[in-house]
Design brief:
Layout: H1 2-14, E1 17-20, H2 34-37, E2 39-47, E3 55-64, E4 70-78, E5 84-94, E6 101-105, E7 114-122, E8 127-136, E9 139-148, H3 155-167, E10 175-177, H4 193-208, H5 223-227, H6 254-285
Antiparallel strand pairs: 1-9, 2-3, 2-9, 2-10, 3-4, 4-5, 5-6, 6-7, 7-8, 8-9
Length: 286
């Protein structure tokens, strides 16, 4: 009776779907390929739970490790503050080989327990219907999720998922849609100032301890180069692209020269005229 009361209290607090009787005998998907199921899945719709009240942008990632383990990472964003909460766990396949039945453990939970889940159906590329049921005595609690590969799945994908629920006679009355709008990615936390300081110190020490052999020989000045006088290179003068116009030559004073030549040429003729007159005067005086 005490266990029945505890189970009923948990069911009421989490607001999962409690029902009388034993868990339904829903057979999980056969020939389930867990490797194709790996990757990111977005929660499109789910049963109402108080634990996820006021949350949005719920994402679940399944990743495999080299050791063969499967890690699970749930990311939930608070609708009021925008802060993201990450809950990590591990997945283990149970049941018959190839059956879509698994156990997911979350060690960080205050009351860690093994939750059993069943993949009722998935096409691996668009949608997956996950179902869970646990019960004690005549009372059982069900939970169900519709997961999609796209954050905002098209209506055709959702119709395919709804058809799976109808085939298993799972009521959609208690399903609520998960808000996947405006899921901005938060920036990475700022780097540690001490880490940046240590990186800068390492770079400086590497530069100081660098061997000289790394410096090219052509860049090291020799003694002869130091003794040689520096030769200053002539700086070429800039020339304009506009051609220079040559100055027009000044005209020569030809008229003046010609007049002087005429005067010189006239003097001998005058001298010739004066000589006969002088000879006549001399003869008259005699």
């Amino acid at each position: 009776m005490l266990r029945f009361s505890v189970l009923l209290l948990v069911a009421t607090a989490s607001a999962q779907i409690p029902s009388l009787g034993w868990c339904p005998d829903y057979q999980p998907m056969a020939n389930f390929n867990v490797n194709r199921f790996l990757g990111a899945w977005y929660e499109a719709e789910r049963y109402f739970t108080i634990a996820e009240l006021g949350t949005r942008c719920v994402t679940t990632k399944y990743e495999s490790t080299p050791e063969g383990r499967i890690l699970v990472s749930n990311e939930i964003t608070n609708s009021l503050t925008g802060m993201k909460r990450v809950m990590e766990g591990s997945l283990q396949m149970i049941g018959r080989e190839g059956e879509g039945r698994m156990i997911i453990k979350y060690p960080a939970m205050s009351m860690p327990n093994d939750n059993e889940y069943s993949i009722l159906e998935t096409d691996y590329d668009n949608y997956a219907v996950m179902w869970s049921c646990s019960g004690i005595g005549p009372v059982h609690i069900q939970n169900a999720w519709i997961l999609t590969r796209e954050r905002l799945a098209p209506s055709l994908v959702m119709q395919s998922a709804y058809a799976v629920l109808d085939r298993y006679k799972i009521s959609r009355t208690f399903f609520v849609k998960t808000n996947q709008a405006d899921c901005s990615i938060l920036p990475n936390p700022a780097a540690d100032p001490m880490e940046i300081k240590n990186n800068v110190i390492e770079v400086i020490m590497d530069a100081k301890n660098a061997p000289l052999s790394k410096i090219p020989a052509d860049d090291v000045p020799t003694v002869d180069d130091k003794l040689k006088p520096e030769v200053k290179s002539e700086i070429p003068q800039e020339r304009s692209a506009i051609p220079e116009i040559a100055a027009e030559p000044k005209p020569m004073m030809l008229p003046e020269i010609s007049e002087k030549k005429d005067e010189k040429m006239d003097k001998p003729e005058e001298m010739k005229d004066e000589k006969p007159e002088m000879e006549k005067e001399i003869k008259l005086k005699q």
